[in-house]
Design a protein that fits this description.
Blueprint: E1 2-18, H1 29-43, E2 51-56, H2 63-69, E3 77-82, H3 87-101, E4 106-114, H4 134-137, H5 145-160, H6 164-178, H7 192-197, E5 200-202, E6 205-206, E7 215-224, E8 233-241, H8 259-270, E9 279-281, H9 289-296, H10 305-309, H11 326-329, H12 336-346, E10 359-365, E11 369-376
Parallel strand pairs: 2-3, 2-4, 9-10
Antiparallel strand pairs: 1-7, 1-8, 4-7, 5-6, 8-11, 10-11
């Protein structure tokens, strides 16, 4: 299954920084990382961190390069975690553990990539080692993540009784939220006719069902809660999973993703239940992941999904999801921009602010393994 950790609010996210999101930044990953990091440090009123963390897929600025760019003469604990979207929630636990153990008082964590103009996520192979297994998947059209998760999505939609109209509900609400988000790459609203006319990439996924490919950087500053009494807290984090959508030859159910494994342990670590969640920042790399996670995290029973997807994901709805537009519309900084929005929401300064938001759920997707975190208002 994996690991879980409850922190009871000992670590706080005191600063958020982001660059502009684009399809061609014209800058290096190091420049993007430095801009986002300086903004986060300024937001936290911190001159310099004593620890730095990042995650990457050989497509970002190394931690020590960033430390030099920031003018740090000394660097304490630092780490670069190899991994993608699964890390966007669980890296919060790495930072909180450094705080909790006394190894650091202020941790800078960041993700920066030229995901459109540089190394594009949709071209990454599915290999785990040297690609030996790809000889068995490429002949059947498995050329990248979108093809793999389209197969899993097809199975889930069939079993859940959901159709293209329900996926449109996810995409349409994402665009509705993004329409008032100046950071968002895609702010134009979309109707059902335009959605259905969008090119199919890998059935059932249309182009509009897939997240943005984005150049940009995002950074957070985590510190001791007593040093930032007005900042949102890291309450609980879980990382884990099992055989499933990421290892289809080992799976009993290709549609079973990480959320079905981590939901129970997350609520247990947090001492909470689904009804405690006020706003959900769900990793929406593909539209079908939203109903799948709503179901797995116990927020919406399967039979209620059609009605919920038709309008209850809005910030004034029963189950607010991704008020900034998420990865589908704001942009794709490998999920860390979703966490940044959770911090804004809990601080009362979010995009399309959810009234009275005090508990936020954040998730990090990687197929059948991933992570999730619960953040709380101070």
């Amino acid at each position: 299954m994996g690991g879980r950790q409850g922190f009871s609010g000992k670590a706080a996210i005191a600063g958020v920084g982001m660059t502009a999101l684009s399809r061609e930044s014209g800058r290096t990953e190091l420049q993007l990382a430095a801009e986002a990091s300086r903004a986060a440090l300024a937001d936290a009123a911190v001159e310099r961190p004593d620890a730095i963390l990042s995650y990457h897929l050989n497509d970002s600025a190394p931690v020590l390069y960033l430390a030099r760019e920031l003018g740090l003469r000394e660097i304490g604990w630092h780490n670069e975690i190899y991994g993608g979207g699964t890390q966007s929630a669980s890296i919060l636990a790495d930072a909180a553990m450094l705080i909790d153990s006394g190894l650091a008082e202020t941790v800078l964590l960041y993700r920066a990539l030229n995901g459109r103009s540089g190394r594009r996520m949709n071209t990454l192979g599915l290999k785990l080692g040297e690609g030996t297994e790809e000889q068995f998947t490429h002949p059947y059209g498995m050329a990248g993540p979108v093809h793999q998760f389209a197969l899993a999505g097809r199975r889930y939609l069939y079993e859940a009784g959901l159709s293209a109209e329900q996926l449109y509900g996810v995409v349409a609400q994402s665009r509705e939220h993004a329409a008032t988000n100046p950071r968002a790459l895609r702010r134009e609203r979309i109707d059902l006719e335009a959605y259905l006319a969008s090119p199919v990439v890998a059935s059932p996924l249309r182009r509009l069902d897939c997240c943005q490919e984005t150049d940009g950087g995002c950074a957070l500053v985590i510190t001791r809660a007593d040093r930032a009494p007005g900042a949102p807290r890291i309450h609980a984090v879980v990382r884990g999973g099992g055989p499933g959508a990421s290892a289809m030859d080992k799976s009993e159910d290709v549609s079973r993703i990480f959320s079905s494994y981590v939901a129970g342990p997350l609520y247990e670590a947090a001492g909470m239940k689904p009804s405690d969640i006020d706003v959900s920042l769900l990793y929406d790399a593909y539209s079908w992941l939203v109903p799948r996670q709503l179901e797995d995290f116990g927020l919406v029973p399967r039979g209620d999904l059609p009605a919920v997807l038709a309008g209850e994901l809005a910030t004034d709805g029963a189950f607010p999801v991704n008020p900034h537009g998420g990865l589908l519309s704001e942009g794709y900084v490998h999920g860390l921009n979703n966490v940044a929005e959770a911090v804004r929401q809990l601080g009362g300064a979010g995009t399309n602010q959810v009234d009275g938001a005090g508990v936020a759920l954040c998730s990090g997707f990687g197929g059948s393994y991933g992570s999730a975190a619960i953040l709380t208002a101070p």
